[in-house]
Amino acid sequence: MSVEKVDTLVVGGGQAGVAMSEHLTKCGVPHLVLERGRIAERWRSQAWSFP
Questions:
Q1: Is pTM, for the whole model, over 0.85?
Q2: Most buried residue, 1, 5, 27, 38, by most Cβ within 10 Å?
């Protein structure tokens, strides 16, 4: 098993986590996003429905 060193970790792949990941990517900062399920799972499965 190989070990990868990451200095920046984003915990949670919700709206804030995905936004932070985008900003880090634009700034060229290597990072890892941890999420317990699929990225943006709550947006997909628990979105509010508006009339």
A1: no
A2: 38
